[in-house]
Amino acid sequence: MNLFALVLLSRAVYSLMWFFIAPVLPAVLRDFEVDPAQAGLLPAVFIIGAAATQIPASYLGALYGHDKVAGLGMIIFGASSILLGLSPGWIWLLLFRALGGVGAGLFFSTAGGVLVALRPNAVGSALGWYNASFNIGAFAGYYWGFVAAVLGWRAALAAPGALSIALGILLLRGRGLRSPASISRGAVAYGLASFPFWGAVYAANNLTATWLHLFRNLSEGVAGAISSAAMVSGFFGGLLGRLYDRLRRKYVLLLGAPLVSTLVYLAIPGAPLWTAPLLVFLYGMSFNAYITSVYAAASRRAENPASALAIINIVNMALGLHFSYAFSWLMTQSPEYPWHMLSLLTFISALSTYIVANRLKIY
């Protein structure tokens, strides 16, 4: 298997292990007799582990090879997945999930840096396929509860770990793609411009199903299926990345995509129910077009593309995660309010990106 395909396959397995916890979490809480109020600790410790290692990973990748550090990340992530299935209690589960975050942090930016190095003249397309692979794995993760229903939650969590370790070993045996050991400070501007949109999509992806269940009276299964349309839209990431590469005026995607989502979010509360899958698909598609463009623009300007990706992702996570809490609270006030907030956030990203694009002369 060539290195480009190996990274994309690894990315899909990586994203599966990001999302496979959610559908099995109720069973985990029951078995360990844990208060549901503590459920949020599991994704929290994972994000902390991932955020803590991304910038060190980009530096280590520059010194020793981005493919090798990405391989180490997949091995750690896979081992943590197996350990999740062997956890004797809730505290151990939290520790192993935090370890998984460390592995995920080592993989994300370095694997992206490998693709940029392999396709220097088609960065948008390369990162578009990278995002598409993430969505394919995430889509499988949304339905991992069906696997758990057959195998049990322990085996379901452990199963992808062996594949992750195998892929990690293959990456470790790679050529050792290096770059200058620099930190891309200019990527901070991209992170600050994109975090409102990132936070809006993160909130929508996590809570659209709940909103549809509560306010459109859909069953949980149907609501979940509709919300997964956002992930289906990501399958077209490679095509969107190719569009970015071919466009002379890059700001068409950088500005147009968040403006599309601004309108979609405004439309969702009052739109006929039959349009919900299409609207969810559109906000997912527009985000994939946008974030691929942001990643490509930042990577092209950076001596160490992995550091640019790491910084953008850290800023997005640190500042964007909290909008989910606001979405939940606003649902208790009015069905329309959370969507108005998301619309405002994406509009802010459009304005911020316009400022960054002009300042950095991205035309």
Poorly predicted spans = none
Shape: globular
Number of strands: 0
> Helix-strand pattern, N to C?
HHHHHHHHHHHHHHHHH
Annotated CATH topology of the largest domain? Growth Hormone, Chain: A
How many alpha or pi helices?
17
Total number of domains: 2
Estimate the helix proportion, in percent: over 70%
**Separation of termini?**
37 Å
**What portion of residues belong to β-strands?**
under 5%
> What is the SS-derived class?
mainly alpha
Q: Calculate Rg over CA atoms.
A: 19 Å
| Major sheet characteristics | none
CATH class (first level) name of the largest domain: Mainly Alpha
Transmembrane segments: 12-29, 41-62, 69-92, 98-118, 127-145, 151-172, 184-204, 224-244, 251-268, 274-298, 310-331, 337-357
Domain Major facilitator superfamily (MFS) profile: 3-363
GO cellular component, one term: plasma membrane
Subcellular location: Cell membrane
Can you offer a commentary on this structure?
The chain crosses the membrane at residues 12-29, 41-62, 69-92, 98-118, 127-145, 151-172, 184-204, 224-244, 251-268, 274-298, 310-331, 337-357. Its main location: membrane. The protein is mostly helical and 363 residues long. It has 2 domains: 3-172, MFS general substrate transporter like domains (Growth Hormone, Chain: A); 187-359, MFS general substrate transporter like domains (Growth Hormone, Chain: A, Up-down Bundle). 81% of the residues lie in helices and 0% in strands. The chain has 17 helices and no strands.
Provide a concise account of the structure shown.
The protein has 17 helices and no strands.
